[in-house]
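User: Phosphatase PAP2 family protein. Structure?
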Amino acid sequence: MYQGGLFLKGLLNYLYQKDTKVFVYFNKKMRCRILDFIMPRITHLGGAIFTMLLCFILYVSGHKDAKIAATEAFITITGSQGIVQLFKRRIYRKRPYMVLPEVNTFWSKLLKDYSFPSGHTTAGFSLAAIIAMYFPAYSLITYSLAAMVGISRVYTGMHYPSDVLSGAFLGTAFAFLTHALL
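Assistant: Predicted structure:
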């Protein structure tokens, strides 16, 4: 193997070890009864039901800016989720509970698809970025909730931190791209 390949392999191994170390911290060392109750519920804020329902409510009950924001959010979420699925089908990264020992999970029926990137985090940041563009006063709240969705995905054993960071980047970038194109 040429020297560049050895460097890249070493770098990827180093990043995986750091990713795993942060995962273990959030999934095992931070564990407590309060977070065990809160985190599995917060994670649903990035799910399809909540994000699509929020877009619908914003569209139906809102004024002109709210309708435009809801439309952009819907396009952003559906478009970014398409990219998430494309990545998951090309980057075969197994979920942490499939690879690491004694991962804390919170559901009896676990996902069988791949881990990279986090779709919940992507949806959360897609929605947060659009809402922040149209309603800047709510940006701290929306981005904080999106970040909590990402943290919950690690806490509940569904994703590595790099899956979440990639999802946050993808959701935010897709929101800005959608906004710029529309």
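The mean pLDDT is 93. The chain has one domain: 3-181.
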